[in-house]
Design goal:
heterotrimer, A mainly alpha, B alpha/beta, C mainly alpha, B: alpha/beta, Rossmann fold, 2 domains, four-stranded parallel sheet, globular, C: mainly alpha, ABC transporter involved in vitamin B12 uptake, BtuC, two-stranded antiparallel sheet, 16 helices
């Protein structure tokens, strides 16, 4: 039985990884109403910045705030330079632009830092807790804790602040938001900046486990999409719950269902999503959209 | 009808007709597909892409997309040819031009690029296509066109064993041979042992795993657990945990670099399972081990056939010094510690040595030369590892040596194993 | 996504352009232009080197796929990020039939079409319940799941090694080289697909699709059954992707899981948006983009082609936010206004 719980813990560990990036996806979706394909690559790039700093001798706890600040500025800059010209245009166009950004950032990182694997220092100590024969690594606990904290902050931001209100207004209807005096451009830039920051946190959390290379986030992005879709794309709580469900379901089915096996385990979260969405098309925690005829 | 419009339309029509006429006059089709040698013993053989002073080669690698790490190989190749051109007067007096194209590891793209290189660039030969899928997609074409496709960068066994594709030949020890080396070691040193395998679910992982399964058939070694991963997976942790549950005596790690690092780290983290850990050659480079931490990889086993540029034991080796010096000069951006640059350097050296002994400077000459190498020494290969081919033997490098990680480096042990002699020919 | 329909509105407004062109150009001139264009397309394989003909053949293949994808994304407002999967089913189906069966290769096309049509129907029904983003991500999961699934059944699919098939030879009576023959076969398929889609859009079903895309509730009130037409659009679209896949197997002669990764699906959607949504010519522009972006990118930045291709995508969208087709329409409209002023 402890073997089973061990698998669950393992699944929670990978689930936390997926959830961390899913939070960034949800954030930008809430702000701008688009799906950002480049989110993972931006997170990867931020992680390289952190790595570069620590490799140059900057202590981790100083490198971290610098990286987050640089990521925030980078996100704002991308919004201003790349995304702004498309504001008010078709959303599918913006989505394709983020695909272009994905390809570009990935190649740029390869050009600057090469494809050799790098190790990133972990903010958490090595080692593991032993709970009734189940091994829980401190890395997993730390990741879960940080993800929960980020989730809480986002929840407060969305529900309790004026920015959250402005943001919802902009995402719903930019034209009306502008009419009531919201500076739409600033809100969108803020959205990109914040999601890049959350992405950076995600990258720094996962890199010690996955090892850093330009394709750090390629695989994670797919699962993060799954997590956000499952949870409902506009809910931070949903993203985290979705991520954990995906992680655990994938791990357990890979371990215990022979017909699925490790090669097809990715099919399990995908199947869950399809089923959930068919029953609840807005995801587990998503808000239903009332349509005006 | 408006006069202006009539004029426009007439203008357009004339322009289009003119375009058609011009294009008919200078069709790109049916241009001479390169010449043949006019006299001498090589008469009638193809001389496309080669003159007395120049030679054009084309290579296809993934320079973009998830497999981009392999895109470092052509940098090593290019550095070698630039060094030859600048300091050695080229290859038998010919300046080598090496054209690199990107296929993103996508077979249809590889076909397109192969056709571009052969038909438009008119290369003398394809020097390396990377990956089993891309090479399989192109080899029918190259063999129909009678274009040499030499030293392809994939360890599948079919390049050497296939009789219908005489223009294609591999280079590195094939995955099956490597698997046989491990099987032999286990059979001799650990009879009765059980094995857990982690493998990449693609041509590379499958070939090595199949080879290992065949090699232990009827022997006293048994696979009791196997787990695969996709290149697109984020991590192999779950797989490692499943393998740990098997409590096997031996862990065979068939991964590519990033996943290799993950598996090594996971093996260290799982304290309840301490198997004998064999890392396949692809993931045994120092650049894979260092990020994990050298303390955590003590006692791991692997096998090799070339000199790792990071390994201190080769610091004073003349071949290694030459490589590092010239790479710094001709590819200053390239990290000499990257195993792929060293790989590119060695395979380019193999090409130079094969061409040097070609009887004719023709495509046929090259085809025959790469299949008649007798104990040829190649830069950067281990002492005792040489190139050996024959009309029926399309496996240039077939020798490997086992090694164990100790302290700061790999330490080779036992004899260099010539898998050809040891296990008989592959079929 | 609401904006898809916004774009669509804009596109529909300009949909009348062919008619406008007809007003400007006398009928005979249109016929002359059309004939010249047809002559150029027919003559191309005698002009270009085999390598270029091969590329153009693949452009035709992608054009067929994008025609289908356009039917779904452009005309019915459903986003698919998984069309690479239908393409793969068509390609693999053909490869397996050509390897195992003794049937003539041309017969594999209708079989692949039928299989993907049925698959499309099957996916179209659940897709009805999903909107915009959610449908996009569910279809994306289809594209992600397919490669490992293909590897699971090596006896059938050749596993990760893929399947090589003998490429169709040109019949002796034509006197054509192989690449020329494949070009004409693909051209024939593309023309048929083009005519079919055009007629479909002009038919009752096409008008119903447009009505549903513009305002589903209103269309329903007017007696159009949205679910029926949306499902049908999905099936047609999947079928055209499958047809493209079948032809691609003839042209390439090899299928492998690595040929149909999720990147293919994303490239197809990017190509469509770049070519132009809800426009027949957009599929052709998009096909050129899908085919040539990587080689152009390589010529610009050889060491890291991704840098150039990423920037290219962004640049094209910047210049032509409604796709190349939209840009062409704007330019011809502007040219027409200038001519009228003269």
């Amino acid at each position: 039985m402890s073997g089973f719980f061990q698998q669950v813990v393992l699944g929670l560990g990978s689930g936390a990884i997926y959830a961390s990036l899913a939070l960034a996806l949800v954030l930008i979706y809430r702000f701008t109403d688009i799906v950002n394909f480049a989110q993972g690559e931006l997170a990867m790039f931020s992680t390289y910045i952190a790595w570069q700093l620590t490799a140059a001798g900057v202590p981790f706890w100083l490198a971290l705030p610098i990286t987050l600040a640089v990521s925030f500025l980078g996100g704002v800059l991308i919004e201003r330079l790349v995304i702004r010209p498309f504001e008010g245009g078709p959303e599918l166009t913006v989505v394709i632009v983020t695909v272009g950004l994905f390809v570009f950032v990935n190649a740029l990182a390869g050009l600057i830092w090469s494809f050799l694997v790098k190790s990133v220092p972990s903010p958490f100590p090595d080692g593991a807790l032993d709970v009734g024969g189940v091994n829980i690594s401190l890395q997993t606990l730390g990741t879960l804790g940080v993800v929960a904290a980020v989730m809480g902050l986002l929840f407060l931001l969305f529900q309790k602040t004026k920015i959250g209100l402005a943001m919802r207004a902009v995402a719903n209807d930019p034209a009306s938001a502008r009419l009531v005096g919201i500076r739409v451009g600033r809100v969108l830039a803020l959205g990109w900046g914040l999601s890049a920051t959350v992405g950076a946190i995600s990258g720094i959390l996962v890199a010690p486990v996955l090892f850093l290379d330009p394709n750090l986030m390629g695989g994670v992005l797919v699962y993060a999409f799954a997590a956000a879709t499952l949870g409902g794309f506009d809910s931070p709580v949903g993203a985290v719950v979705g991520g954990l469900i995906v992680g655990v379901a994938e791990t357990l089915s890979g371990a215990y269902v022979d017909a699925i096996g490790s090669d097809l385990k990715i099919g399990v979260p995908l199947a869950i999503i399809v089923v959930v969405l068919l029953v609840r098309p807005r995801g587990l925690f998503g808000h239903a959209v009332v349509e005006r005829v | 009808m408006n006069k202006v419009h009539t004029r426009t339309v007439r203008g357009l029509a004339v322009a289009a007709a003119g375009l058609l006429a011009v294009t008919t006059a200078c069709s790109q089709r049916g241009e001479g597909q390169g010449g043949t040698a006019e006299s001498g013993p090589c008469q009638g053989q193809q001389t496309t892409g080669i003159t007395d002073t120049s030679m054009k080669l084309g290579g296809i690698y993934p320079l973009s997309g998830p497999a981009s790490a392999y895109g470092e190989i052509p940098k090593g190749v290019k550095a070698y040819f630039d060094y030859l051109n600048a300091e050695k007067g080229g290859l038998k007096g010919r300046k080598v031009e090496f054209i690199v194209r990107d296929d993103s590891y996508s077979p249809p793209k590889a076909v397109e690029e192969a056709r571009r290189l052969v038909e438009q660039e008119q290369v003398f030969a394809l020097f390396q296509t990377l990956g089993t899928p891309s090479t399989t997609a192109t080899w029918d074409y190259t063999n129909q066109q009678k274009v040499p496709q030499v030293f392809v960068a994939t360890g599948a066994s079919k390049w050497g064993a296939d009789k219908n594709h005489p223009w294609t030949i591999g280079w590195q020890p094939n995955y099956v041979s490597e698997a046989r080396v491990y099987a032999k070691y286990l059979q001799e040193e650990k009879p009765g042992s059980t094995v857990a395998v982690l493998y990449q679910n693609d041509d590379f992982g499958k070939d090595l795993l199949d080879g290992f399964e065949k090699a232990i058939e009827g022997k006293d070694v048994k696979i009791i657990a196997r787990q695969s991963y996709e290149v697109t997976d984020p991590s192999v942790q779950a797989q490692m945990r499943n393998l740990a549950n098997s409590k096997a005596d031996v862990f065979l790690n068939i991964t590519t670099p990033k996943f290799g690092s993950q598996a090594l780290a996971a093996d260290d983290a799982i304290t309840s399972w301490n198997p004998l850990h064999i890392v396949n050659n692809v993931a045994a480079a120092m650049s894979v081990l260092r990020p994990v931490g050298l303390k955590k990889v003590q006692g791991k086993l692997s096998s090799t056939y070339y000199k790792d540029p990071v390994d201190p034991q080769w610091a004073d080796d003349p071949e290694m010094k030459l490589y590092k010096e010239k790479l710094a000069k001709y590819a200053p951006q390239a990290d000499p510690e990257d195993q792929y640059h060293a790989f590119g350097w060695a395979v380019a050296d193999s090409f130079a040595k094969a061409f040097a002994q070609a009887k004719c400077p023709t495509r046929e000459g090259l085809r025959d030369a790469v299949r008649s190498m007798n104990n040829v020494k190649i830069n950067m290969l281990l002492p005792g590892v040489t190139m050996q081919t024959g009309p029926d033997d399309g496996f240039p490098i077939e020798s490997m040596q086992m090694m164990e990680f100790e302290g700061e480096r790999w330490k080779r042990f036992g004899d260099v194993i010539d898998t050809r002699k040891e296990f008989g020919p592959l079929t | 996504m609401k904006s898809t329909s916004e774009t669509a509105e804009r596109e529909t407004a300009t949909e009348a352009v062919p008619a406008a062109t007809a007003r400007v150009l006398p009928p005979w001139a249109r016929w002359v232009l059309l004939a010249l264009a047809a002559a150029a397309v027919l003559y191309a394989p005698f002009y270009f080197a085999p390598f270029r003909v091969f590329q153009l053949t693949l452009v035709l293949v992608y054009a067929v796929v994008l025609l289908g994808l356009n039917l779904l994304v452009g005309y019915s407002g459903q986003i698919s990020l998984g069309h690479g999967a239908f393409f793969a089913v068509g390609a693999y189906g053909t490869a397996i039939l050509m390897r195992d069966g003794d049937i003539p290769y041309l017969l594999t096309l209708p079989i692949a079409a039928a299989v993907t049509f049925v698959l499309g129907l099957a996916f179209g029904v659940p897709a009805l319940r999903l909107r915009g983003l959610y449908l996009a991500l569910v279809t994306l999961s289809m594209a992600i799941f397919l490669p490992p699934l293909l590897k699971r059944f090596p006896e059938l699919t050749g596993g990760s090694q893929g399947l090589s098939v003998e490429q169709p030879a040109s019949p002796a009576w034509t006197g054509l080289a192989e690449d020329q023959w494949l070009y004409y076969v693909s051209l024939a398929v593309a023309v048929v697909a083009f005519v079919l889609v055009r007629n479909l859009l002009r038919s009752r079903a096409g008008r119903a699709l447009l009505a549903v895309r513009e305002n589903e509730a209103a269309a329903e009130v007017m007696g159009v059954r949205p679910s029926f037409y949306k499902t049908l659009a999905f099936a047609w679209s999947a079928m055209l992707a499958g047809v493209g896949g079948a032809v691609s197997t003839w042209v390439i002669g090899y299928v492998a899981p690595d040929s149909f990764t999720v990147v293919l699906s994303i490239n197809l959607l990017a190509g469509l948006v770049i070519g132009g949504l809800a426009s027949l010519s957009g599929a052709v522009y998009g096909a050129f983009f899908v085919m040539f972006v990587s080689s152009v990118a390589q010529d610009i930045s050889g060491a890291a082609p991704g840098i150039a291709s990423g920037l290219l995508i962004i640049a094209v969208m910047l210049i032509a936010p409604t796709g190349v087709a939209g840009l062409v329409r704007r330019l011809t409209a502007a040219a027409r206004r200038r001519l009228a002023k003269e």
